[in-house]
Amino acid sequence: MSFRKILLFALLLSCALPVLRTQEQSPPTIRTNSSDDIILRPIPGEVIILAAADVQPASAEKSGELAEAIKTFNQVLWDDLSFSGFFTMAGKSFYPPYPIVRAEDIKYEDWSALPFKVTYLTAGTLDLNGGVLRAELRIFDMKQHVMSFGQRIGGDTDQVRAVAHRWADEIVYRLTAGTSMGIARTKIAYSSRRGNAKEIYVMDYDGYNQQAFTHNGSNNLFPNWGAENSHLAFVSFRTGKPEINIYSYKDGSRVAFPMFNTFASTPAISPDGARVVFSLRTPRGDADLFVSNLDGSDRRNITNNPAIDTSPTWAPSGRQIAFASDRAGGSSQIFICDSDGSNVQRIMKEGGDADSPAWSPDGKWLAFHWKPHLSTNYDIYIAEIGSGKIRQLTNSGGSDESPAWSPDGRHIAFQSNRNGTPQIYIMLLDGSQLRMITSQGSNTSPAWGGYFRRESDN
Amino acid sequence: MRRTRYSLVVIALFALSLLITLTGCHKKVAPPPPAPTKTETPAPPLAVAPAPTVSLTVSPDAIEAGQSTTLSWTSSNATNVTIDNGVGTVESSGKRTVSPSASTTYQARATGAGGNTVAQARVTVTAPQPAVIPTVNPTVSDALFFEQNIKDAYFDYDQYNIRPDAQSALQADARALNQRPGIRITIEGHCDERGSEKYNLALGDRRANAAKDFLVGLGISAGRVDTVSYGKEKNECEAHTEECWQKNRRAHVVMR
């Protein structure tokens, strides 16, 4: 191996290192233990070096017609695979300089000659027939020199991104042995101020296809997804007061939920989709947490404390709830309790001001925003349930707030005003692959939807 | 913080009551009368009788007409003590409550074998402050009246207790609302930008409610007062300064 090749290999490895690194940034006042015993982003045992060869037009005469779609597909696939955090993406400039249209076009000896060993290669073709887009996609095992798996995906001509996302999810699911089902087709709901109103919007996880879900011209805040993306619950001022609104995400119909005409806020639908926990003013004048059925029946006050209780989030088991409360005196702190309100515990002894807890999909972590001292800026932290170990995930100089977990628990979406107006950002838990995915208006309170059902499993 | 403040008030009240109790006891436990002497020994003739002394104080020394104040005096070597301005002959030392209608200089005169001595004390009496009653101009519309008379209540950071300046504002609001029984209001709870959106929405509700409860406590019908929280969604002021934050931490009263 020449010196140049060693250098290239070292460069490539340095790209892989962020996958293994965990966040070490913490203000000195906060006790964090060494990173060794906490695996923030489980990865498969071996480092997968993935090559993503550009997809090709199925036939040369359609190359002009397909040029735009192919460019989009290649970019989306690359971004999805990079953002998944599972792979070391092999730079395209290293690839043998000829297109791969069929399996026979792969010359394994050329790939073996690269300064690093590609583990898998994705390649394929796009075709357009009668307004229907067809993709033929393959993954090749570059050690065994065989095709591992493939997929034919069809869609409308405006669904190039969706087709690429689906292939990315398939690759992630297969190559990680189901560690993640792939988040490329997930959605993020959020509150978007454009003009005087704040409407609930839903977009692809990468910030594309932003669509208004509400159109009521008032303030709509704090969206929350129901189980399997069945519902969207949020707070709306459309009747003048903050009220809980629950809509079917499938057909847009409103679920009949009581209007209280006082103060109701921060709804969170239980993991089984049957119950909702929310903050509601009591006759005493303070906000407590109530749990009810999705239609508001069987409503129970579970906190019954004269302090402010708000911002609840369910544990994935449905047996516990985390929330924010000022009951300890001074500012808002994070507490957990059983879903009937018993066994209230504060999750960390440090003071400051914390809100917006979000329970990780594996149940082990709470993400929240926190400022240990009085300042205008929050940062995103995670605390391990039980041990109370704390990790700081952001430190931008702006205010980073309202974290939301991706369904595979490896990513965080949050809002930040680090570049001026609040916008939605996504990143891997270790802070890498940071992307600002909104820019129009001001955008807050991201809620990351669940996995989309895998059609190939049906 | 809240608890500390309450504790201080409690301690202060306790200390005050203790003081009052002790002072009261002190008054009750008068020095025992001198034991009667069994044999009357004639006082030795005095070559030179000592001159009497007298001192007079008035507390408070400034009152409004209709209020009262207390004269206190002590004397020695006096056989007779008188105070003018209608008080008359008094014991050698003591206190007397007086209620002059105009500023008065009181003079105490002590007379004894050794001569006369006088002492003076002046109490200033001012006219009572007229109660602040906004003049009701029946031609002023409710909207204009509201604008001229209704004040917002402001809060400390992350607090919803009604501090003294907010009490004054809400007392003025209650007086104004009593003059215009037809006016119905909504109290909007607002917070500064520093807290997070979710918590602030609940905090704003708490502030609006605290202001409403205060007005209801002053006799305003609860049915006239609605509340709504906007958290930090509709802030008055956008700058990142304490001055601006204070403007935003308020219960904003609007007419329905």
Describe this structure in words.
The complex is a heterodimer of chains A (458) and B (256). Chain A is mainly beta. Chain A is 13% helix and 37% strand. Chain A folds into two domains: 46-175, Rossmann fold, CATH 3.40.50; 187-457, 6 Propeller (Neuraminidase), CATH 2.120.10. In chain A, strands 1, 2, 3, 4, 5 and 6 form a six-stranded mixed sheet that branches. Chain A has a four-stranded antiparallel sheet with strand order 9-8-7-30, with no helix packed on it. Chain A starts with a helix and ends in a 10-residue tail after the last strand. Chain B is elongated. Chain B folds into two domains: 49-129, Immunoglobulins (Immunoglobulin-like, Sandwich), CATH 2.60.40; 142-255, 2-Layer Sandwich (60s Ribosomal Protein L30, Chain: A). Chain B has helices at residues 2-28, 142-149, 164-179, 197-217, 242-248; strands at residues 53-59, 62-64, 69-76, 80-83, 88-90, 94-98, 104-112, 115-126, 153-154, 185-190, 225-231, 250-255. In chain B, a hairpin with a 2-residue loop joins β7 and β8. Chain B is an alpha+beta fold and 256 residues long. The longest helix of chain B has 27 residues, at 2-28. Chains A and B meet through β18 and β22 of A and α4 and β11 of B.
Describe this structure in a few short sentences.
The complex is a heterodimer of chains A (458) and B (256). With 458 residues, chain A is mainly beta.
Write the layout of secondary structure elements.
The complex is a heterodimer of chains A (458) and B (256).
Chain A: H1 3-20, E1 48-52, E2 56-57, H2 63-84, E3 87-89, H3 108-112, E4 120-129, E5 132-141, E6 146-156, H4 160-175, E7 187-194, E8 197-204, E9 211-212, E10 220-225, E11 231-236, E12 243-248, E13 254-255, E14 264-269, E15 275-281, E16 287-293, E17 300-301, E18 309-314, E19 320-325, E20 333-338, E21 345-346, E22 353-359, E23 365-371, E24 379-384, E25 390-392, E26 400-405, E27 411-416, E28 423-428, E29 435-436, E30 442-448
Parallel strand pairs in A: 1-3, 1-4, 2-4
Antiparallel strand pairs in A: 4-5, 5-6, 7-8, 7-30, 8-9, 10-11, 11-12, 12-13, 14-15, 15-16, 16-17, 18-19, 19-20, 20-21, 22-23, 23-24, 24-25, 26-27, 27-28, 28-29
Chain B: H1 2-28, E1 53-59, E2 62-64, E3 69-76, E4 80-83, E5 88-90, E6 94-98, E7 104-112, E8 115-126, H2 142-149, E9 153-154, H3 164-179, E10 185-190, H4 197-217, E11 225-231, H5 242-248, E12 250-255
Parallel strand pairs in B: 2-8, 10-11
Antiparallel strand pairs in B: 1-3, 3-6, 4-5, 4-7, 7-8, 9-12, 10-12
